[in-house]
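Marked as duplicate of an earlier ticket. Keeping the data here for the record.
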Amino acid sequence: MKRYSKIIQQSERSFKRQTGLSIDNFNQLLQQLGFHIAQLKIENPLKNRGLKGRLSLEDKLLLTLYYIRHYPIFLLLGQIFNISESYAHKIYHIIIDMIVKIAHVKGVKSLVNGTIKDIVVDVSEQPIERPKKGQKKYYSGKKNDTL
């Protein structure tokens, strides 16, 4: 299934809703990504070996942006793009690392906005069901259930 070829035929608004980028920004990022990959292959010619992947660079970028936008599990992402869960995970991490290098982001923490005022954290304890027999393997008995 060629996801990019189908999604590019949709309207600009639909494309932006699914990927978070306009078609022009997507193409610009795709061009920068292609240039970065070409530079990596020039620096390390051994990267040209082996079988070529089933997904095009457009689909790999689309997979990454789709994950960032919708945050599905990799199993679902693999089914959408007709690849395995592990291959979807591998592609995501390779492409996101390249995007970080291309965009010159200093790290994940540099994207956080410094205007956060309040943070709410749920720290309530939940009792865990354990087997009645053979519980000693899982539970030392040091903490009593006081609920």
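See parent ticket for discussion. Residues 3-106 form one domain.
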